[in-house]
Specification:
With 371 residues, the protein is α/β, with parallel strands linked by helices. The chain has two domains: 120 residues, Immunoglobulin-like; 239 residues, Alpha/Beta hydrolase fold, catalytic domain (Rossmann fold, 3-Layer(aba) Sandwich), CATH 3.40.50.1820. It is 21% helix and 28% strand. Strands 2, 4, 5, 7, 8, 9 and 10 form a seven-stranded mixed sheet that branches. The longest helix is centred in the C-terminal third of the chain and has 19 residues. It is globular and about 70 Å long. The two termini are 43 Å apart.
Length: 371
């Protein structure tokens, strides 16, 4: 019996550790337990079963999974299905120093036959010699790690928290207009509204990349001295759905069902003069980002910009995509996120294995586009 662990120490956004073994009894199940503590000191664990092949081997990268906690082969193997071993739901908090120590235990039946450990890091040496990009976000807790991962890849990153309650975009536009170097613009969620308004007024952009975004304004953004009209939403109808969870998708869907209300907030995305890439999940429960992104793609198509527009929707995938919330390797078991102003948790949508694959693909597509 022989077991090996690859990828001894890697960036968190790199492909996950792979554990493989040979010399086991064919067509039996081995069980891998993975544990760690996050940056808040909370204990997380996954228990994943793997069916040994007829050739007496298995691999967490390619072997079909079995058991109650793990179904199928996901992009992050034993990491994506980690659960917090506390009663209340929690987001996975990455530690400030960026280092997470993972411990592995392999069981054949009830007998532990191997153990190993490795360290994943969420930051690396920042070279600062690569392409320039601006990253607009909504202040999510994982932003600093997404930025660090991009910088470790050599990109020069300027990041800004775009707040809908501070809607004046002119200071940010002035910052972006300094210098002649072309750059990419990356944004997600509500920040995509601001990003697309800014992009219209930045003729030297290389490209715009939006995750779970929208081509509609739901905030009264102000730019170049003009307050822009927006779609009016009635949030007073929101009601918690079991265990104090909220799903906000319905509120946005109902708001845009009124054509006059919808048209009031349309962003003139056809004025964006560079390639535009959109990524969304069909089961986004924060808002219907797949439909909103498709409105962008269709509007650009009508104005002759189909060749430099791409929209990819992931079936049964939720809101958390991109370098703010959708970092590859973060556990996707918990499908809610805290909402500080309401005290409730918001449903993200999506299935955890599909979310894991979509996060990995989005990250790889982002790096490819930026490069």
């Amino acid at each position: 019996m022989k077991v090996s662990l690859s990828h001894e120490s890697t960036l968190w956004c790199d492909p996950p550790p792979v554990i493989s073994g040979e010399g086991f009894i064919p067509v039996t199940e081995v069980r891998l337990r993975t544990t760690c503590r996050d940056g808040a000191g909370r204990h997380w664990q996954s228990q994943n079963g793997y069916l040994v092949s007829a050739q007496t081997s298995f691999s967490t990268e390619t072997t079909a999974g079995a058991g109650d906690d793990y179904y199928g082969i996901a992009a992050e193997g034993p990491l994506y299905s980690m659960r917090c071993l506390e009663d209340e739901p929690h987001e996975f908090v990455l530690p400030k120093d960026g280092r997470i120590h993972l411990t592995f235990q392999l069981f054949d039946g009830n007998r532990e036959v191997w153990s190993g450990e490795t360290t994943r890091v969420t930051s690396g040496a920042e070279t600062g010699h690569g392409p320039l990009l601006w990253f607009l976000h909504n202040g999510e807790t994982s932003v600093e790690h997404g930025v660090s991962m991009l910088r470790a890849r050599g990109f020069r990153v300027n990041e800004r928290h775009v707040k809908s309650d501070a809607p004046d975009l002119d200071p940010l536009l002035s910052e972006m207009q300094v210098g002649d170097e072309p750059f990419s613009l990356v944004c997600s969620g509500r920040s995509s509204e601001a990003g697309m308004e800014l992009a219209q007024r930045l003729p030297g952009l290389r490209n715009v990349i939006c995750f779970a975004g929208s081509g509609l304004r739901f905030s009264p953004w102000k730019i170049q001295g003009e307050v822009l009209p927006h779609v009016v939403c009635d949030h007073s109808t929101l009601q918690p759905r079991g265990d104090n969870f909220l799903t906000t998708r319905k509120v946005y869907a109902e708001a845009v069902a009124d054509r006059e209300n919808r048209d009031r907030g349309r962003i003139a995305v056809e004025k964006i003069q560079c390639p535009l890439y959109l990524f969304s999940g069909s089961d986004d429960q924060i808002w219907p980002s797949a439909a909103f992104s498709e409105l962008v793609a269709q509007r650009r198509k009508l104005h002759g910009r189909e060749s430099d527009t791409a929209h990819q929707t992931f079936p049964r995938v939720g809101y958390d995509l991109g370098p703010a919330l959708g970092l590859p390797g973060l556990p996707t078991t918990e499908r809610t996120i805290s909402h500080s102003s309401t005290g409730f948790r918001l449903l993200l949508g999506g299935r955890m294995a599909r979310q894991s694959r979509a996060r990995r693909e989005c990250w790889e597509r982002l790096i490819s586009i930026l490069e």
